Amino acid sequence: MTTAGHGHDAEPQQRNRPLDGRSVALVHEWYGATGGSESVFRHIAELVPHGQRFVLWKDRDVTEPGLRESWLARTPLRAAKAAALPVMPLVWRTLTRERFDVVISSSHAFAHTVRLGPPERTRYLSYVHSPARYVWSPDFDGRGSGRLLAGPRRVLQSADVRLSRHVHSYAANSREVRDRIRQHWRRDAVVINPPVDVDFYTAAPAADRAQPRDYLLGVGRWIPYKKFDLIIAVADAAGLPLVIAGSGPEEAHLRRLAARAGVPVTFEVRPGPQRLRRLYWGARALVFPVHEDFGIVPVEAQACGTPVLGLRRGGLLDTVVDGETGLLTDDTDPRVLAPLVRRTAELSPERMTANAATFSRRAFEEKLTAWIHHECG
């Protein structure tokens, strides 16, 4: 399921492209086909098209040309992210013998520790999706809490701080991530929210826009921390049909829960962009009880005039105006959330689309360009 990058916004203007005349390295962690961090990296590359792009490795289904993989891609560790973590700092320090004037990293693990020249001559900027969850927040979504990392975690935390002192400036994808950077690394960061292809969603066909909005919607990967079990319970308590769009290893479990629900639950497996857009436009509300670093899905929903019902934490504090474009709560009791579903009908769809527009690709381009110019002259 693709949630961003449909190519409907204008390409970055040639006159706005920064760092012309300087050698630039663009650095990302492991590279998947459809992830949100990869979408940000692609947009950075569009803005700085002459930059050399480096990744730890790219997934087998990635066909994008021009990505230079590290030597880690030639080892079995490419298939085991958690096991590869302890060696990633070494990989970033032995990436290439080339030296660059400017290095921009897209980091959610150790990419921000990369060094491709002495900091007296090379300018280092890092766009941070989150300090490594496996290392700093192992219980956040359960993926980093295994015994394999229990021993080296403190060593990795110390290395993460020590090996990133040369970074001249950080940008965070949300206020939540900015606060984590302050907490873990004792560094400040400017907030630059990720780009969302809002124009694609607002430009829906008339037939999509005329739907009756008679169901609730859940969108995302079907894994435990996305809380689709809670979404089903909320729909059941609210007495409204539910559509679940996405895919993932929890599918069988969620289908069993759906079969016991008192309302119809429809599964949309890997919907394409047009189908997903239609689902947004037909929903009464997006139910999103997830603590995300940022979260592109709630912005897409608002671009379609669909209110968001979610938790008062994480990226939703950036993307949802509580009481205007959605309703946020600290409670995860379905009996508390269900009455809020009815209240979402009081909110203005026009206000939602206006709020979504502030997260457009153009807004990202302008903020990123301003940050680069400020830091690099």
Please supply descriptive tags for the structure shown above.
377 residues, alpha/beta, Rossmann fold, 2 domains, 17 helices, 16% strand
What's this entry about, in short?
This protein is of the alpha/beta class and 377 residues long.
Label the overall shape. globular
The total strand number stands at: 13
Class by SSE composition: alpha/beta
- Helix-strand pattern: EHEEHHEEHHHEHEHHEHEHEHEHEHEHHH
Q: Give the CATH level 1 class of the largest domain.
A: Alpha Beta
End-to-end separation: 39 Å
- How helical, in percent, are the residues? 25-40%
Main beta-sheet strand count, sense and barrel state: 7 strands, parallel
- Number of domains as seen in the coordinates: 2
Strand content: 15-25%
Q: Can you give the mean pLDDT?
A: 91
The strands making up the biggest β-sheet line up spatially as 3-2-1-4-5-6-7
Residue ranges: pLDDT <50 for 5 or more in a row? 7-14
From the alpha-carbon coordinates, what is the Rg to the nearest angstrom? 21 Å
- The CATH topology of the largest domain is given as Rossmann fold
Count of alpha/pi helices:
17
Which CATH architecture of the largest domain? 3-Layer(aba) Sandwich
